[in-house]
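Support request, please re-run this one:
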Amino acid sequence: MRKQGTIVLLTLILCTSASSSWAQLSPRSTPPPLVRFTGKLLPVEEAYASSLRPLLEVSIKGERWVLRLARVQILASGYTQEELLRLLVPPLHFDGPENLLRSLQTPEHVGQLLAIEGRLYLRSNVLLITAVEAIA
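Re-run finished. Output below.
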């Protein structure tokens, strides 16, 4: 009986040691960058008619739009602005609460300067929107 207790104790020690070593070797997961895009959301045809500013193609609930960028701010991330913009593959898919997605597509917001904030999931090319603010 004593021999079994020793084996169990050794197994527990080895497993605990191995799992802590594994945790040190595995990469730390970091939250997706928190970003704020400021610009005008426009229908595709209107956006490409006159483009003086950088354009970012986006998709909202399967409908394609263009965000004419005025400013990109990285609020929390290990990335630079240039790195983030280089990693984006259009169209960027907007996702999030239904009320925020619906508000982006309302006539009063189309063509108006907006600040769209959210977490940018680079691997899946999704902006999970957390806030939308109209800028006067």
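DSSP finds four helices and six strands in the chain. Residues 2-25 form the longest helix (24 residues).
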